[in-house]
Amino acid sequence: MLIGVAIGNGMLDPYIFEDADLHYYYYHGMVGTEDYDDLLAKCCPHTSNVRLCKISQNRNSSCQAAVSSLRRDAGAASLNLQNLYKTCIPKHKNFSTSAYVTSQRSYEYVRRLTMLKLMNRQDEQLISSYESSQSTVCGDLQMKYMNRYLNKAEVKKALHIDSRSLKWIPCGLIQYGMEFSSMKSQVKRMVDAGLKVFIFHGDFDMLCNFLGGQWFTDDLGFRITKSTHPWTTPRGETAGFVKYYEKGLVFTTVFGAGHMVPQDKGEAALKIVNTLISNSTVFE
Q1: CA angle 73, 74, 76 (to 5 degrees)
Q2: DSSP annotation string for 252-275
Q3: Is 103 exposed, middle or buried, given 0-12, 13-18 or 19+ CB atoms closer than 10 A?
């Protein structure tokens, strides 16, 4: 019987994450105060509350020019999008499988194009900047070994995966389209049905950053039962910051993790899973 769902670093609402990206850049020191203030002045002239300013839906030309400038200055395409503080591998280093190079470089490009298409927008300057950014391979060499491991017959058997199933490949190599513009109604339906829903984000992830995840969770409309506070691993180390809502809804960050939370912070990820399958929704 299904008792709950954990959603890790999910792209749950492209409009929310599109906006959150811009604030994430600023609060991680990737753009200057003057550029950020210029963005807010041109895109949010009628409110000082960034949550109420829907930058992604603002079609004003000066606003969109400020957005493109901020993204260009942040240099997001040359950073490790899966983990801001992990090192990118220079392109000239030996990395034998070109598909992996394409995969790692295209994560953000594919995501951005998908969102622009969903929003019925074209940003030629933005698209061009991602297409031309090929100076680094931002990702993990482990992807090569992960591919070999997950396609082993014995691993598929242990995971109860049909041996006749398709070969596992990095998600960046798959072309897909979004069926829904937001997952709010689906997540709300699960919570209202009595399922525990844990939404967690590594706080170093740039692909689906924690600000967007927190805003999405707040916007679901469930009452907060305990505001944001630290939680710990079994060894007593700070694992992240968690917020509890009614009906078993939980939002948490995972401190020091990127897009691949179990890979970066396995102990914290295991506690999330163990809490999900237990009778509790409390991480402490």
Answers
A1: 125
A2: EEETT--S-HHHH-HHHHHHHHHH
A3: buried
Q: Give the tens place of pLDDT for each residue, 129-151.
A: 444 444 445 545 556 777 888 88
* Token pair listed for 125: 């300057």
CATH number of the domain enclosing 202 = 3.40.50.12670
Could you tell me the maximum CA-CA distance found in the chain, to the nearest angstrom? 59
Contact 204, 268 (CB under 8 A): no
Is 252 part of any domain? yes
pTM, full prediction: 0.80
Alpha helices in the chain (DSSP H): 14-27, 33-43, 61-74, 98-118, 124-131, 142-150, 153-158, 184-192, 210-219, 261-264, 266-277
Q: Reduce the DSSP state of residue 136 to 3 states and report it.
A: strand
In a domain, 172, yes or no: no
Q: In what order do the strands lie in the sheet with 249-254?
A: 4-8, 196-202, 249-254, 238-245, 224-232
Q: How far, CA to CA in Å, does 116 sit from each of 51, 109, 112, 120, 181? A: 20, 11, 6, 6, 11
Cα 203–chain centre separation: 9
Q: What is the DSSP string of 79-96?
A: S-TT-TTSPPEETTS---
Ranges in the chain, pLDDT < 70: 75-78, 88-143, 170-176
Number of domains in the chain: 1
